Amino acid sequence: MQIAPAAGRFAPTALMLGNIVTGCSVLAPAGMLPELAAGLDVSVHAAGLLITFGAITLCIGSPLTAWLTSRIERRTLLTVTLALLAAGNLASAFAPDYASLLAIRLVMLAVGALYTPQAAGTAALIVPVEKRGSTIAYVFLGWSLAAAVGLPLITFIASRYG
Asked: What is the model's pTM?
């Protein structure tokens, strides 16, 4: 499916910002393990399993969800994916116990696994061939920013405000 180059010159930036959101959603538990463990009354090891099971879900979910949603228009798919990530983060904040939080995160990350490959593919379609590599790299910059800026910010907020 080809997306017209007139889709907007700010589209790669929007895709990169979506990757920041996705990256922060995935990495958030790593920045607040002690607070999660205390708040959920589990060990730090058990809280760390939120990251492990999330990573497994991303590895399996990314190609599977990309295949299952291949016929959906990309802009709609990317928008719905970010909306579901936001809803999942909100639901995670109000999860009453560890099991609920784990279930919410697994569903949220199965949906979130879809964003990055679709964003990269969309970015490749909206720029001229000679700019594809740099545009895809720019979209992936979102994950680096999530790790370098988002995760420390999450850690600060969690340690300060719980």
From this structure: 0.85
pLDDT at 108: 94
Q: Is residue 59 part of a domain?
A: yes
Domain annotation covers residue 63: yes
Structure tokens at 108: 């949220």
- How much is the mean pLDDT over the chain? 90
Say how many domains are in the chain. 1
CA 39 to chain centre: 23
> Is there a contact between 23 and 143 (Cβ–Cβ < 8 Å)?
yes
* pLDDT greater than 80 at residue 98: yes
Q: What's the CATH number where 23 sits?
A: 1.20.1250.20
Alpha-carbon distance of 85 to 119, in angstroms, equals 15
Look up residue 121 and give its two tokens. 């593919």
Answer for the pair 157, 36: CB distance below 8 angstroms, yes or no: no
Asked whether the CA dihedral 162, 49, 42, 107 is positive or negative, the reply is: positive
**Range of 56's domain?**
11-161
Contact by Cβ (8 Å): 143, 19: yes
Return the structure tokens found at 76: 């709609």
